Amino acid sequence: MNSFDDPRITQFLDFLREGHTVDSARKKAELNWKLLYSLKNGVPEFADAWDQALGSGRRTLSRVKAMTEAEVEAFLTALASGMTVSEAAEVSHINSASFYKRRHRDPEFAKRWKEAARHGLESTLARNRETEPAIFLRELRAGKTSREAALLAGKDITTFYRLKRKDPVFAKEWNRIAQSPPPGGASPAAAASAAGAFKPGKGSKGAEEPRRPD
Predict the structure, then answer these.
(1) DSSP alpha helices (H): ranges in 131-182?
(2) CB neighbours of 140 closer than 8 A, spacing ≥ 6?
(3) Residue among 44, 50, 42 at smallest CA distance from 15
(4) Can you say how many angstroms the Cα of residue 185 is from the centroid of all Cα atoms in its chain?
(5) Residue 127 — pLDDT band, cuts 50, 70, 90?
(6) pTM of the model
(7) Which of 5, 31, 45, 78 has its CB 3.0 to 4.6 Å from that of 83, i.e. a possible disulfide?
């Protein structure tokens, strides 16, 4: 295998096409100057490939630098809202590959991207983070009995009875929901269940809680 077949040479040319300087591409491909210039001076095909890669890299940089600040801001704002890179790029009307290239070449932009992505992750987690009491109350509003709502929240009903005794805000909302007509109306037994009148005791094991009518 001759030196032109070295995979590091292919990497070097790829880095040039991405817009790296010759020295940056050389370092990334872990090549020394002596080998590169001996190839460039002795292998015409490599010299042509080098020149073409440099030209391609300059055009890439030109396109990346042509982004307006408004387009960059649109991309970063969308990214910070929790959108994926592809979605954020679509909002800014710029191909996502151009943003990746700019991040690769522009440390300041890479820093802003990282910060926006962090905010995006936090936003996504915040939207998905629903507490067990919130799920329980939501299911009560949807017409579920307290036992059904507890199961959907992933807890035993006794957990929410304890919380009701300790948390007046939670207790007030639970009672408010129980006093409001659920979807489709409710039987007296179901209303009592939603209000917490059905409390597990020594003789309640295995007993069925009254259900709201479907």
Answers:
(1) 132-141, 146-152, 157-166, 168-179
(2) 146, 149, 174, 177, 178, 182, 194
(3) 50
(4) 40
(5) low
(6) 0.38
(7) 78
Question: What long-range pairs does 117-124 form, CB within 8 A, spacing at least 24?
Answer: 117/79, 117/80, 119/79, 119/80, 120/79, 120/80, 120/81, 120/82, 120/83, 121/82, 123/80, 123/81, 123/82, 124/82
For residue 167, what are the contacts with CB-CB under 8 A and spacing of at least 6? 133
Q: What is the mean pLDDT of residues 39-44?
A: 84
The residue among 136, 161, 158, 160 whose CA lies nearest residue 149 is: 136
What pLDDT, on the 0 to 100 scale, is given for residue 13? 86
Summarize the confidence of residues 4-13 as an average pLDDT: 80
Residue 18, Cβ density class (10 Å: 0-12 exposed, 13-18 middle, ≥19 buried): buried
The one-letter amino acid code at 56 reads S
Element (H, E) at 205: none
Closest CA to 111 of 69, 76, 87: 76
